[in-house]
Amino acid sequence: MKTSTRCFLSVPMLVAGSVALSGCGRSTSAPTTVTYHQVGICKSYETPNGTEQAKANEGFAIFKVESVDNTKYNDIFNFDPGRLYVNQSNAQQTAGNVYEHGSVYSWNRRFVNKDPRFGKAMGVKYISDAMISKGEKLDEPGFALIPLATNNPTGGPEADQLNFQLAYDTGSDDRGNIQSVNAGIIIIKTNPADTKYTVVENCKELPVM
Predict the structure, then answer these.
(1) pTM for the whole thing?
(2) In the chain, what's the furthest Cα-to-Cα distance?
(3) What are the mean pLDDT values of the chain's consecutive 10-residue runs (209 residues total)?
């Protein structure tokens, strides 16, 4: 089993990216790049079957994936948006259990909900599976929703608790055991580093909706 690694980049960090990615597995010299921005966080949206409401102390974090660039990687990339997640682990969970090969199984990871109802309710393109050929780039894959805790479960700085970073679960063996995280993938968040987020009640109130 490969050592799990996490590689999060934002626009100001691109210069340091080549150093940060030195331990990220699949291909640091020819990576696939996922670019996205965080739209915001909301509590509810309406569907034909009624209101979808976030749980107490949670909100629907909405992201827009801007592109998946596979032009540098010399193979097909089977993009599965259900593998995108936010790691909301605290320090103890991140440390993990040595008997579980390090940490991954103890992490508090929240994955993209692949249910397309949000996209239909908002009238926007919702993200879906895509097979991206070598040398190709997929523009505007769509929006994605992840139900996330808003009570700062990581214990990080309060001022930054709603600033979420996406990661990608890149592999598993035949038993579903995780082998690597962000292996050969650069994930770039394009929001300005000083962007502040607040939770709004109705998802329709988000600026791009």
Answers:
(1) 0.80
(2) 49
(3) 38 34 51 96 94 96 98 91 92 65 71 94 96 95 97 88 92 48 86 94 88
